[in-house]
Amino acid sequence: MSRIHVIGAGMAGLSAATSLAARGMSVVLYEAAKWGGGRCRSYEDTTLGCRLDNGNHLLLSGNRAALAYLDRIGAAETLTGPDKPLFPFIDLLSGAAWVLRLNYGITPWWVLRKDWRVPETRARDYWALRRLQRAKPTDLVADLLGDLGPLYERLLEPLAIAALNTKPDVASAAPLAAVVAESIARGGAATMPRYPAIGLSESFVDPALAFLRAQGCELRFGARVAGLTVSDHRVTGLVGPNVDEIIDPADRIILATPPWVAADLIPGLVVPNQFEAILNLHFRAGIDAGKAGFYGLLGGVAEWVFEKTEVVSVTISAANDRLDADPDALATEVWSDLRRGFGLPRTMPPYRVVRERRATFAATPEQLTRRPGPATRLINLTLAGDYTATTLPATIEGAIRSGETAAALVAEQ
Ligand SMILES: Cc1cc2nc3c(=O)[nH]c(=O)nc-3n(C[C@H](O)[C@H](O)[C@H](O)COP(=O)(O)OP(=O)(O)OC[C@H]3O[C@@H](n4cnc5c(N)ncnc54)[C@H](O)[C@@H]3O)c2cc1C
Fold it and tell me: What is the pTM (predicted TM-score) of this model?
């Protein structure tokens, strides 16, 4: 029986592997790390003495590929979130707090309700969101939407930073338009915030690995593929410190590594090569984040705060300019914001700063032109990963969808 070799056990690789295994195909999974999940994982933190996610990840109920993936691996019930499409915000500068609420259906009558829409906006302001339908990859978010006053500052700008992990004055509006088309534009039913009830690995990784094991797949951890042996436009072998694999002519490969690894393995492959960091600060403390379990923050250092079982976690996106910040100074600054927003004590509790230097590719117009499709010049190798040309920004949904696409192509061959 021919085998499919999936390289990388992040969201893209796990999505491809589980999709193929569900079709009854024989899968071998190679992962360089000793664990799965890639940029979307949980780990035991020795500093805080508890389990942490590498970063807060928010999904939306319109993320159909992610939800189908969770369904496949038996983890659909592991996500949680408010029972209504709502997003609470606090403006740390003015002290204003509000809850953005959508109605479930596709007709956005929520914009007619003053207490549901963004404060100081008018219903007719939202009409301008139609500009996104015509957004070209070269349109910048700030140029396209920046004139919309409070609607931009209090909703569109934070949404763009969260979705694109790129500052709006350099970010392309096209991937933001793709996100909006699959969520807000489809109504509140597609815009329910969702996140793991326990942890990223408990939702997205461990059940997938259990599923693959149950299907008889071979999982190789600590197996870094450092080189491909190529003959006649076909990969004939995988090599690495713990990998020495001959690829049979009928075998296929799905390369689901980050883009910089893919470019190393396939000379000449053009991929995004500029990245943005995300910082997460986890404090050993508790807050009451109400029904939603999280808040959007404006006017502070961080953009989102999540109430977790053992910690309060905040996210700073598009954070290249803060990568080298002194951790203690940064934590002090963020804690002061949290104190303002949530009335927390003056004494800062133990904290942990998790830096993901290359969290996502920078969603600039120039970088978008570097996103490759799944097919490569190597006949038996298909690409998957959040950086491939999915139209979505680098997200769980994009990564999982790319894995599905790669699996479908391979299954057809
Ligand atoms: C802090 C943070 C917060 C985020 N927040 C959100 C969010 O709120 N919502 C959202 O949807 N998305 C979010 N994202 C983005 C999301 O996590 C990524 O888009 C997604 O996880 C990428 O998956 P991937 O499979 O494409 O890549 P990766 O996760 O990078 O997976 C690639 C895998 O390949 C392995 N690998 C690398 N080299 C080799 C090799 N040579 N041989 C074998 N294996 C190899 C790696 O170890 C890794 O496991 C966030 C990301 C970060 C870092």
Answer: 0.97
